[in-house]
Design goal:
heterodimer, A: alpha+beta, SH3 type barrels, 6-stranded antiparallel β-sheet, 16% helix, B: Rossmann fold, 7-stranded mixed β-sheet, 10 strands
Chain lengths: 81, 740
Amino acid sequence: MSARKILLRNMARDQAGTVSAVKVGGDLGLRIREMGIVPGARIKVQGRAPLYDPVAVKVMGAVVSLRNNEADYIEVEVEDG
Amino acid sequence: MADSAGARNPERIEIALAGNPNAGKTTLFNRLTGANQHVGNYPGVTVEKKEGLCSFDGVTVSVVDLPGTYSLTAYSEEEVVARDYLVRNRPQAVVNIVDASNLERNLYLTCQLLELGLPVVLALNMIDVARDRGIEVNVEKLGRILGVRVVPLVARRGEGVREVLAAAVAEARDPSPPRSRPVSYGDDLDRAILNLAGLVEEKGILAGTYPPAWLAMKLLEGDKRVHEQVRDAVRDAAVLETIEQAVSSLAAHLSATLDSTPEAVIADHRYGFVRSVVRQGVMVRLSDEDRIYASDRIDRVVTHRVAGPVIMLAILFALYQFTFTWSEAPVAWLGAGFDWLAETAGDLLPDGHLRSLLVSGIIRGVGGVFGFVPIIMFMFFGIAILEDSGYLARVAFMMDRVFRTFGLHGSSVMSFIISGGIAGGCAVPGVLATRTLRSPRERMATLLTTPFMNCGAKMPVLALLISAFFTTGKARMMLFLTMISWAGALLVARLLRSTILKGLPTPFVMELPPYRVPTLRGLLLHTWERTRDYLRKAGSVILAASILIWATMTFPSLPAAEKMAFAEKRQAVMAAAGIGDAAQEALPAAVREEIARINAEEGEAALEYSIAGRVGRALERLSRLSGFDWRTNIALMGGVAAKEIIISTLGTAYSLGELNAGEDQPLAEALKNSPGWNRVSAFSLILFVMFYSPCLATVACIIRESGSWRWGAFAMGFNTLFAFLLSCLVYQAGMFLGLG
């Protein structure tokens, strides 16, 4: 089983992984973190809005939505099935 | 001494409720305080402050419901308000409501409360939901590790509420200071905090307000507000210099070694702490983490690419149907009630200015506000269902991509819908609903464009003009107009966001709360709070405005000679029929009609002679470009006070006497037969009514919510100009093409 790191934007629906980095600071970085998207957290893509943006992810038992350009800062380690 | 005094005087304890949004904070607050609540505002901000009283064991407990937050940073007004309250008021116990089914994320806030050294009591809410999801929480162990009292709770069913209160009272009476839990943020930060805290303590910076270590941490974290406070409090430039030095050297070090920032490292370590707590056997997951819950299954359908938008339209349409079908009867009762009141007052008082003020000014004006209350209540009730069930967040989620294009936010959709986005709302609550928006710019853009929606008061005007001039189906025309109002609002929002409200979009990082069946109690409370807001704000303004409008339409009154002429006409009619002027009740129908016609003519003449009439005449030269004559101008001026006034004023101006809502058939006929009117001018007027100045009640709310009267003045001026240009364009183009 090999692990690779991809950006949250590129994850498919229902794909799961572990957050490896959140590469943004400031308000956006804090906001992302306080919603539980921190390195080490398990994250799963729950679905996308009809226009493919924003994306909804499940993290720490809650569903959190963010826009694709915000998801670009989040790097996830996914397992290749 | 203090003890014996406490025994004599009734003991009073102050507690605060803190917790994440959707953790059940409001439900617990309502359970604790019942109807014994007081809603106000925190000074200087629009965040609501809810306080309530309850009693326990002979103690009066004052409960403050803090705004729901995920954190205590300075990210939003709510967070600042919650933090300042906790720091300044130092409540004797802080009940932290925690969603047990989402324990890790919720404990992030708990961690920050403990950092502040507050007397925390954990209320572990929704343990039933957690259990359903296969999550077992060891209450006793959690309490032991955190060093706080933990109480399991199912706030929705009221289970554990007394126990939470008991724990809070026990915590408040506990003489030992709360155990502060030092969280480690890693070697670099811990050392920096220790050093800076030493300086803070030595210099006594903000001593008594913040614990030194907390202040040091916030300074290093780059918290804007804390930095401001420190700059204000510290006079010594050298000390400030040292602090800035410490902050920037840590930031540089972290950037070089970890490619990270202090606030990120702190946040990550807080979660590290939370995780370590949870992993010590506090939480046991009995089922697969990726299990699909009912809520997720609903989302699969409800936010589906194709089904999602269809369902959304259907639900919004149902809301519209519900509101208007169910409110029809109460609106009619209220209308009849006010008509009766106006009639009675009219019969009791002698003819003159006092009667006119009371009947035409006050009763009609206040009736205009109250007449809409049933519609607004049903609308709010429906919206409360969408909100409390969690669906509204999905609407924002689905619509964000579209709204962002126009410089707005997915959550703007709520304001637009309340204001009449599906026809028939009210801009007052719509403006108030912008509170959910976090970014000041998106909020302002929503605030300024939301009055473009076709609110319930514009509807009768639009309906009248459609029925008089357009043969197309009313429903189809209404749908078309609704689409125009959306297009106008979105385009103007885009314009505002690329000019006076320029700036980057705010993050859309938000929680989509799990679907829940709303409680009736919660729905009723929501509905009542919003309706009260509407009544309080709209009521006072409309009363003042209707008196003002009444005065401009009444004074100066017709010169005595002209009044005499009308009186003579009436007498001539009576004389011709061979009746003396005393025997009014016995008038034959033909004579009565003739007299009513003369009265109406007098009304028109008086209106033309009044201030409003003169201004209307003066504006005619300009308004002709859009196809409006002086009569329309007066009605539109009245409409600035309240759109309800437009039709009744048009009635007076067209010599029909005063019209009540629903009796506009003669007016439609009169307009159709007037030479100045045709389809083009009617459509031009429709557009003008849709887009021109918001009513005064809405303007008052815009001023309140934006914090500046300038925005209110802007909304009136800009919207009127926009509407005028638009209607001009349409009228001129339509007449040129010969569509009239």
